């Protein structure tokens, strides 16, 4: 978040807007302090029901959509890291992210439709993951789980959260949200093992980034 704040200040263009969405069923109590500590000057939203991921069919965070001044999506659904990150120590360390994404955004803001990073309507359409019936059911089950948890019905909440995971097992968003309720949190050993498994199997943790 601090790096995105730096990018936002460096661009310094009133027509450039960052909308940062924290997807966390814990709501303001959990996500609010993180935003407060970062003190970003761009827009922050807390999405308790993961509606953004549901609408755009994102499978992991951070993900993003670039939307131009005409409301057209010109890039969507890729790992949107502001820099390279490293998690863990020694043999358990994992490096992820990249240093090319934020410069690409700056190029887009400066050049608009002439930026080489703007994708065609056909490419964007092809990159939008289509919802299956089971994924739509999973989204509904996930929100039901949140509703029951907010009303203190832990058993029913777990039932619907597990249903969501079974219906859409590729949603890392669901897995990470469940992990926030564990002692290790959403970026602990379980998540790191999951990342390592995806990489070892050549599975798309994110869609490959076409920016060099």
Describe this structure in words.
The chain has 212 residues and is of the alpha+beta class. The protein has one domain (2-201). 46% of the residues lie in helices and 12% in strands. The chain is built from nine helices and six strands; from the N terminus they run H-E-H-E-H-E-E-E-E-H-H-H-H-H-H. It has helices at residues 2-11, 28-38, 51-56, 101-111, 121-127, 133-150, 154-167, 172-179, 189-201, and strands at residues 19-23, 43-47, 65-67, 73-76, 84-87, 94-97. The strands form three sheets. It has a two-stranded parallel sheet. The mean pLDDT is 88.
What can be said about this structure in brief?
The protein is an alpha+beta fold and 212 residues long. The chain has nine helices and six strands, in the order αβαβαββββαααααα. The chain starts with a helix and ends in an 11-residue tail after the last helix.
Q: Give the oligomer, counting copies of the same chain as homo and different chains as hetero.
A: single chain
Unreliable segments of 5+ consecutive residues: none
Helical content stands at 40-55%
**Number of helices, counting only DSSP H or I runs of 4 residues or more:** 9
Beta-strand percentage? 5-15%
Structural class: alpha+beta
The shape, in one word, is globular
Span between termini:
22 Å
Number of domains: 1
Q: From N to C, what is the helix and strand string?
A: HEHEHEEEEHHHHHH
The overall strand count is 6
Mean pLDDT metric: 88
Radius of gyration: 18 Å
Strand order of the largest sheet: 1-2
Largest sheet report = 2 strands, parallel
